[in-house]
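Before the break, one more example. Copy the sequence into your notebook; we will annotate it together after we see the structure.
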Amino acid sequence: GGAAAAWFADIHRHYRERYAEVAGITAGSPLHDAHVVAAALDASLYTYARKRLSGVVATPGDPTNGATIFDRRLVPQSRPAVGEATVAVAVSVAAARFKELFIERVASLP
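Here is what the structure looks like once it is written out:
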């Protein structure tokens, strides 16, 4: 990869170090956004289950302002649920294929 790939590697190194420091995660770090993009590129990477979840809409003052959030955990009272919906939730990933796609895309950055 080029300069952008090197920049990403530096940023991700910092991200991994913070996860290790703050959360004790030392075997890599979560790639939430990368999974969302990967699912859009190739939905077959994931196995989905339909689940009924409570939903909230984040309001001003909340760091997630404007987001519609469906969460499998209990919704805190500070954000009471405004409704429920049945949504498709990714419950597993073809990890080797995801890793291959992720590395291929990052390495192709200019």
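The chain has a mean pLDDT of 83. The radius of gyration is 17 Å. Try to locate both features in your own notes.
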